User: Which sequence fits this backbone?
């Protein structure tokens, strides 16, 4: 098994974050620093992260949070900002956030120690749809909506076609639902910048058909068996 997959299945972090830890030199196999892409014998090798032993988790846990603004989606922040881990109930351990919502965004955020599910939900090749409620600084025109649906240039690369539904608009701005299948950094905000607008409010309300319901800002609950099954076979 690759070392990044091993760390993900140990509930340490996602595979992408695991590669960063490995590159930092804090992951060791049998006392020696690991390299990115290295294989692990899951029976005989002893793996440590920052000197602490880790092992594959056999019982996975799944949670959903209504993330508020003002928190970063990481286990530990190098700028000492508040992280979503600070909001988890104290009895929840060894899970990590799946994907990211930026500091100024809020909404549906999944936590798990299931590395395979985290990989499936975040890898661009799987094109998992994610839906956002967007409120803009200025009114959005039909021309803007058409451009967003067709794809706009963000950081020199054209975005994929997406679903955009204009819910309401007035002199002070517009409210829309936007569903994308990519996960580029601050993508929705940059898409609206590309059509000459700014996002005042951004909230993720769905991943696939999993909806954010029944949670106040900052609250967390376990996913139901039906919700877990849905995500596993999404």
Assistant:
């Amino acid at each position: 098994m690759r070392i990044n997959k091993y760390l993900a299945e140990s509930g340490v972090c996602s595979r992408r974050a695991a590669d960063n830890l490995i590159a930092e030199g804090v992951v060791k196999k049998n006392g020696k620093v690991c390299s990115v892409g290295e294989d692990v014998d899951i029976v005989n090798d002893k793996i440590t992260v920052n000197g602490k032993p880790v092992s594959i988790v056999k019982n996975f846990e799944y949670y959903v949070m209504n993330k508020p603004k003002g928190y970063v989606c990481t286990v530990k922040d190098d700028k000492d900002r508040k992280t979503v881990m600070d909001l988890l109930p104290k009895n929840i351990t060894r899970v990590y956030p799946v994907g990211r919502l930026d500091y100024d965004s809020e909404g549906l955020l999944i936590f798990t120690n299931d590395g395979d599910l985290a990989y499936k939900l975040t890898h661009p090749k799987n094109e998992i749809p994610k839906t956002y409620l967007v409120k803009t600084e200025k009114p959005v025109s039909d021309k803007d909506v058409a451009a967003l649906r067709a794809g706009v240039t963000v950081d020199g690369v054209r975005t994929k076609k997406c679903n955009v539904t204009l819910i309401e608009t007035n002199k002070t701005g517009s409210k829309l639902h936007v569903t994308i299948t990519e996960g580029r950094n601050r993508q929705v905000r940059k898409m609206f910048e590309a059509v000459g607008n700014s996002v005042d409010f951004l909230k993720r309300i769905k991943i696939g058909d999993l909806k954010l319901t029944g949670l106040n800002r900052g609250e967390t609950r376990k996913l139901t068996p039906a919700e877990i099954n849905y995500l596993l076979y999404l």
Notes: The CA atoms of residues 131 and 188 lie 10 Å apart. The longest strand covers residues 199-207. Residues 129-207 form a domain with the Alpha-Beta Plaits fold (CATH 3.30.70.1560).
